[in-house]
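Reviewer 2 asked us to include a model.

Predict the structure of this chain.
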Amino acid sequence: MASSPKRIFCYGDSLTAGSSPPLDPLFPYGPHLEQELNQSLQSSALSSSSSSSSSESESGVVVRWRGLPGWTASAMVEYMNDSTIGLRSALDAIRNPSISIVIILAGTNDIGSITSSMFDSRNSDLDESNNNNMESVKLVMDPIVRLHKTCLDCIGDSGRKDMQTLAVGIPGSAWQERNSNAAQLCADVNDALRQFAASEERVTYTDFPFLYQSDDIKWSSDGLHLSPEGYETLGKCLAQSVKEMCMVK
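Predicted model (structure tokens):
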């Protein structure tokens, strides 16, 4: 008898949708994540089949995603309950079985919006710069934390609050290479995300799996999005984090 499929939901901005300018199609990392996890399950099943007589088998992993190109995390929170794009509506709609893990990759557009009008901080007063940066970190972090806590508060099919979340660090970009405020804010937000995950039993943090490099085939020519190869790499790398969260053994 096969068990119910494990469900994973990916939520975020264009990096979840799979935008890759100047190409028109979307190349979400979700399918690559699903493929990698199911291949792992199959390998595990083959290796254990000779030593197990159990009639119960894993029926696989199902990955779904909702990416909102151009959206900030604060906008995602504002539209949390929207029936077509909101995070909470997706959590409520996916049942039998309910979602086990939500992967949240958000904040890139918040950093761009906040730092687009900032002067480079390398020549500014240190105390003023630190105060401004702390305020900026809060502006980015608060909505991301709300997204995670919405998932943690969700009651699943079991009648318990047992959903886990994976917080993916905000990646680098060409903008961050040109603007020290953006680079510092990204680093500080990722540190804050790491601390938040450490304080929550059902939240795991993982760094974005590769650095921004303008000549790297994994990045789109716009210096912000990934190439199709980049999204494939992202999905495969995140599979390891999911396996470490004990979804796939």
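The chain is about 45% helix and 10% strand. Residues 18 and 26 are 5 Å apart (CA to CA). We have added this to the supplementary material.
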